[in-house]
Design goal:
Layout (H helix, E strand, L loop, with lengths): L3 H17 L5 H8 L5 H13 L3 E3 L6 E3 L1 H11 L6 H11 L6 H16 L2 E5 L8 E10 L2 E8 L4 E7 L6 H15 L4 H18 L3 H17 L2 E4 L13 H12 L1 H5 L8 E3 L4 E6 L2 E11 L2 E10 L4 H19 L8
Antiparallel strand pairs: 1-2, 3-7, 3-11, 4-5, 5-6, 8-9, 9-10, 10-11
Helix pairs in contact: 1-3, 2-3, 5-6, 5-12, 6-12, 7-8, 8-9
């Protein structure tokens, strides 16, 4: 049974472990938190919490640390959202920069989050496959490379760099872009590649290096429709004691590279909980993912995330993510906030 005393002791253990990453013993709790209980009483309560699955004992110390089940209980029942004033100021300055488009503002916010939490932050953008192509701009860098900018009907932009095996003339690039803009405007992103197949004869009659340009555009559109994940601060995981084991670190890096994983990370996961209409927490082994959703319009939803060890400051991180999500909706959403 979770009595008030056990909850009080458990919360102190979580707070202390988040700060120190060291197993917690009864002596530490008495000295730092001035609990009005004897050392024996605290030890007995810690043993009870361990037997209930909320704490676990490490092999190297007599102290205890929170278990994944313990973190889940903490976030469901003891979470106290706490906004970091310094970070709020830094983030508000990003959104006050009128020269930044939505994508740049979100990515800059991720960079700030990763710097100030020492964790990995990321954004899962609105699913581009639900959008329609509005315009393509192609800027030659030299005879063997160019940068393409795709713009959708929602204002979303995506940049792709093309590298060609052979030289391509500026005239070919301009002709190809003009044909695609004329024939593909208004096409749903997920239908663009299929429609481009029908344009091959037209490209062949007007563009000298049509096959090379065609393959470059097809590759770019496939990625545009499926790869819309940005992470900042991956290197921060090197400094987290939980990932000093190279195999654990390699596993986490593999997760960060798996685009499909992040779209369905909370689905059918028994260790996933919602703390509000927009925030979700998921635990996988030693990894925790805190996310907050935002809507640009009724059809499009994006997601901000902080990824790190289970030992993270949930009170602060949930508040920060919800703050950024609200700012995105207020400034870039159509008509303000959309409820889930």
């Amino acid at each position: 049974m979770l009595t008030r005393r056990r909850i009080e002791i458990f919360k102190c253990i979580v707070d202390e472990f988040v700060r120190t990453a060291e197993p917690i013993g009864s002596k530490t709790l008495m000295q730092k938190y001035h609990l009005p209980y004897s050392s024996a009483t605290i030890r007995n309560e810690m043993l009870a919490l361990e037997e209930m699955g909320y704490l676990e004992k490490t092999h190297t110390s007599s102290g205890r640390i929170p278990s994944t089940q313990g973190y889940k209980f903490y976030c469901e029942h003891l979470l106290e959202k706490r906004m970091d004033e310094k970070m709020e100021l830094a983030l508000s300055e990003v959104f006050s920069s009128r020269h930044l488009n939505m994508d740049d503002a979100i990515k800059r916010s991720c960079d700030i989050l990763s710097q100030m939490t020492n964790l990995t932050s990321g954004v899962l953008g609105p699913n581009a496959s639900m959008q329609r192509l509005e315009h393509i701009k192609l800027f030659p860098i030299n005879e063997r490379s160019a940068v393409a900018v795709f713009i959708t009907d929602t204002g979303h932009t995506e940049n792709k760099t093309f590298t060609f095996k052979e030289k391509v003339s500026v005239e070919d690039i301009q002709n190809c872009t003009a044909i695609l803009n004329d024939r593909l405007k208004g096409t749903p992103i997920h239908e663009v590649v299929e429609k481009m197949q029908m344009l091959k004869p037209i490209l062949a009659s007007s563009v000298q290096r049509h096959e090379m340009l065609f393959q470059a555009f097809v590759s770019a559109f496939v990625k545009f429709a499926s790869e819309n994940v940005y992470f900042s601060g991956k290197g921060n995981m090197l400094y987290q004691p939980e990932f000093s084991d190279i195999e654990k670190l390699r596993g986490l890096m593999g997760m960060l590279e798996d685009t499909s994983l992040w779209r369905n990370i909370g689905a059918q996961n028994q260790l996933a909980i919602k703390t509000s209409s927009s925030s979700e927490l998921v635990w996988m082994d030693d990894v925790a993912v805190v996310s907050s959703s935002f809507r640009i319009n009724p059809e499009e939803e994006g997601k901000l995330m902080v990824v790190g060890p289970s030992r993270m400051d949930y009170d602060r991180i949930v508040s920060l993510l919800e703050y950024v999500s609200d700012m995105i909706e207020k400034l870039y959403g159509q008509g303000g906030h959309y409820d889930n």
